[in-house]
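Justification of resources, computational component.

The compute hours requested in this renewal are based largely on the per-chain cost of generating structure records like the one below. Each record pairs the submitted sequence with a full C-alpha cell output. That output is archived, and it is also reused by downstream analysis tasks.
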Amino acid sequence: MLLIAYLFTITATNTKIPSVILLLLLGWGIKQITLFLEFQLPDFSPTLPVLATIGLILIVLEGSMELELNRSNVGLLLKSFIGALVPMAGLSILFAYFFQYLGGYSLRVSLINTIPLFIISSAIAIPSIRHLKPSSRDFLIYESSLSDILGVLFFNFVVINETIDLSSFSDFSLKLVLILVISIVATVGLLVLLKKIKHHIKFVPIILMVILIYSVLKVFHLPALIFILLFGLSLSNLEKFWRSKWVSRFKSDGLTIEIQKFKELTIEGAFLIRALFFILFGYLLETPEILNTDTLQWAALIVLSIFTLRIIQLKLSKLPLDPLLFVAPRGLITILLFITIKPVNQIFYINNSLILQVILLSTLVMTFGLIFTKEEKES
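The structure output for this chain reads:
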C-alpha cells in the first residue's frame, strides 16, 4: 500500500490529482474488499489520533523548512496571516451564532464545534501544490501552516476558558510569551545536538525529541505548533543569522550539510505518516456517513461559505484567484480537533457525517481546481 502511495505521489505532478484523494480511495477500496471477502481486521480507530498528531508535527516542520525569510516576503506573510485568521475566526463565530440560535446551545459550545470546520489542512494543502510557482506555493504554505496554528490556538482558548474575560486574555498572552521563550531555548538545544552528535544515528533521536517537546507543551495547554514552526524556520534560515555574534558560533559547512540531511529525512517521514494516516482514514470511512443526505445540505452550505469568503479575501489582498482560490481543504487538523471534543460539548448538527462531507467536498474543489489550473511560470 505504501508503494502504491509513493506511485500516487510521483505521478501527482503530471495528473494534478492530489495524492490525498487517491489515498482515501485506496483505503476505502480496501475496506470494501475486506467486507466482500468477510475478512476480519482489528479496530484501527485508536491509531488515527496518534498518526494525526505525528503527521501534523512532521508536515508543519516540513513546510516551515521550505520557507525563506526575507524582506520581500513580509507582504506575503502578512497577507497569508490575514487569510489564515480572518476567514477562520469570522466563519467560526458566524456559524456558532447560527447554531446557538437554531439549537439553543451556548456560544462557547457552538464555537468548540465550528472552529475545526474552518481550519485549512496543511497536511492536504502542502503536498498538493508542488507544481505551482514559488510565489503561490509560499503563500499557501504560510497560510495553511498559520491556519493550523491559529486554529489550534483559538480552539484551545475556547475549550480551556469556561468564561471569556480579561483574565482569560492575560493568561493567553502569558502563554504566548512563554512558548516563544521555550521555543527559542529548545531550538538552540536541538541545534547544539545536531552539530555535536557524532554518532551515525542522530536525526531520528532529534525528531523524537521534537515530538516529545511538542507533547509536553500540549500537556500544559501551550500552543506547541508555534515551536514546530519556529524550529523549522530556524533551520531553513540559519544562514541569514550568521551575522549575529551568538549564532555565528554554529557556523560551519558541516552543519549546513546536516540540516539538509535532516530536512530530507523529515520529508520522507512526513510522506510515510501522511500516507498511513489517509489510507487508514479512507479505510475507516463509512459509506452511509458519506452519503448522509440529512447533513449534505449543511456541508454544501459550509463549503460554499468558505470559498465565497475566500474570493473576497483574495480580491482584497490583490492576489490571483487561480489557483489560490481552490486550495483551502479541510482534513487532518479538523479530524484531530473534532475527536478531542468531549461528549458534553458536542452538538447535534455537527457529527461524523458533516465533518466527512466538508472534508471531501473541500478536497474535491481543490482537486478539480488544480487539474484545470494552467501551468504556472514565475515571471
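The mean pLDDT is 85. The first helix runs from residue 2 to 15.
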